[in-house]
């Protein structure tokens, strides 16, 4: 009897779906308003559950009784038609629940009522999401070959994706993009950095659910689908999934036009108004780089001809000496005193003194709270991340696979020995492949570094990186280019990060104890980085060789979940984080032991301009790309996605509002970027490929 009851659960699920459908039809005919479907259910939640659950249970019990009475239950439950019926019903049921879970975790897990309001406002988008998830669920069930196990695996998968999207949103204030999945192989390296913020009960719950599912599958009766039926089902499912995942220019596009409102220019709104599932699918791209409208074989041929004709006119080298060049991109280095709280001491007093003495300003980061490698990409290649599709990862998608022209290869042509170092695993962002492809002669990760001392619980200290940089400079027989990425200030900012040895106290009105402690821990890290920077400069001044150090922070820190520290201190919220430049400005300094002739006041500039600025200062032979960037810097010294700062310091959020001359400059620069961009090999031309030295 139990076996029959267990195998009849698909009937109960089917009657549940049928009851909801009949309820919707009746309520819509009575009110002629889809909002009433949700209003009544929301106001009379208990009544709605009793109505739907009661009807489903009565119909299920009656059906079960009749099948037993007429000895039909074995025949029906043992048929392949029943197995297919079960797979379809479970697919719809899992999809319906999972679609709601995605929205709940994306909008507000602490207030499920907001999800009901969203479903009330956009019922067609919820149902479209259910349809999309149903296709994938049914496909997985067909691949697994057993209805219960396939449905269970799929639900756990959806729940994990909803959690990942949730955590990325609370730490980075941006949703999960399909391109983020390329970093799945690096979870082992990433989890230790965020482990203090992961909910242990949720992790235990997910693991427990997986164990229970496996145990139940082994212990309970199964509803298996024969292989030939699975093949018959999977073929059209593959076609449908391909059409709806890569919907552009397919028959499925009309359904997105009708049942969604895609907003690729604003991903926050795109994910909110369409739901996270449709938002993710809308970002499934085969190309990670956005091409300009007039990008074609003919246009690129003209650009190539112009490059070759102007190549001889570029500046010849007038350098008398070749100084050492050092990049220090400091993890999360930012000025915490910009928060409206009081510090017991200035955590970056040395940096302020250096800012008065040397060329300094602010770097406008393309990232917030993470994606260090994207900032690194801009600084080393001078190509803007603004040209990439949302979620595009240049290191993983492009630079890990092919050689790529960069500031490294530019200096290598000038006779430099080039070294990259990062005191962590080379697996992060695939740097072990990327650095050699950028042209570095020597690559040092934590296993290759001599100095790996820690001054905190998790990461190698900035002082150790300074020692490694100085050793590299002193040992080099050629002019050296050293690119160093630090990690000491990486989150989490847990209370025991410095084992109780922190020295900075913070007070502020309306500041919660949790955020007070987190800001104190973060400020302690900045103080230690500040001391390391002073020592680096002191040692540089003692060197016999001329040396220039470019120091900047990669991005602002993620302080608290959902920008909690920024909200409590009045710095900003989710909306201003998307539109205000202060959420992306980090300190930028050019330190040196000789006169670089670089303007003392750098203002705010994008990382893409660091290399062209240095090339101009060093007096080496220029190239068209750097010339173009230096020209563009005079007109728009800083920009990122939907944020442009003009020469007067005015912030513009729409490129169409820029001058026509500047818009033309942007197009030319983008085309020059695309010439060397390996990701667009289908539209590049052979003469550019051969002219690699043009960079």
Explain what you see.
By secondary structure, this protein is α/β, with parallel strands linked by helices. It is built from 28 helices and 13 strands. It has an 8-stranded mixed sheet with strand order 5-4-6-1-8-9-3-10, with helices on both faces. Strand 12 (643-645) and strand 13 (651-652) form a beta hairpin. Helix 6 (80-107) packs across helix 8 (123-144) and helix 6 runs antiparallel to helix 14 (267-281). The longest helix has 30 residues, at 513-542. It is elongated, with a radius of gyration of 29 Å. The termini are far apart.
Q: Compute the number of helices.
A: 28
State the separation between the terminal residues, measured CA to CA: 76 Å
Looking at the structure, what is the overall shape? elongated
Please list the strands of the largest sheet in the order they lie side by side. 5-4-6-1-8-9-3-10
Low-confidence residue ranges: 676-695
Helix content: 40-55%
Count of β-strands: 13
Sheet-strand content, in percent, reads 5-15%
Q: Can you give the mean pLDDT?
A: 85
